[in-house]
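Inputs:
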Amino acid sequence: AQTVTQSQPEMSVQEAETVTLSCTYDTSESDYYLFWYKQPPSRQMILVIRQEAYKQQNATENRFSVNFQKAAKSFSLKISDSQLGDAAMYFCAPSYSGAGSYQLTFGKGTKLSVIP
Amino acid sequence: DTGVSQDPRHKITKRGQNVTFRCDPISEHNRLYWYRQTLGQGPEFLTYFQNEAQLEKSRLLSDRFSAERPKGSFSTLEIQRTEQGDSAMYLCASSTRQGPLYNEQFFGPGTRLTVL
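Outputs:
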């Protein structure tokens, strides 16, 4: 079974500071994508950032960046200059080619609190 | 609004009743996914459609669950003889394999099911 581990159930960060959320995954596949999704309380899932496994360069999206270590199967998310609106559940979700569906396999999530 | 929509947003039913949910994907997306999310957990994959064909089903999808996507447009998820364990948020997502957003899944707001 393909597993996703987010070892930090809860994290907190001061506004304007930087925080890193960790994620490790287990797969034998070579073709896959990696995503971080954000789910604010009672609101819908929003994509934060994506990474193609074949790309060595780490993805960056404004204040969000990833540290992708393919050999270690590690995919951490760094949030710089944290804002109050960043408070949410964050899910790491690899997407494997498998049967061709590229379904997402979610971790249990990390609840991020932002302290004013 | 051209995002993914789901109806209803909330459903309360009694154990043993049948319920049906609807998902309208982004119009040009040929891939559609259903996930289930229980409290405090990440979403779990249920089933996948490419156009009108249901190509993959999770072991979570018992024979009380059925999904359709007639004409490759909207999709319905029906649960027969509901049980209290079916209480969850049911999420729909869609994606395309073309363009810069390929394989990126866009989520709807979900249908929250409560079985009494």
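Remarks. The CA atoms of residues 31 and 37 of chain B lie 20 Å apart. DSSP finds no helices and eleven strands in chain B.
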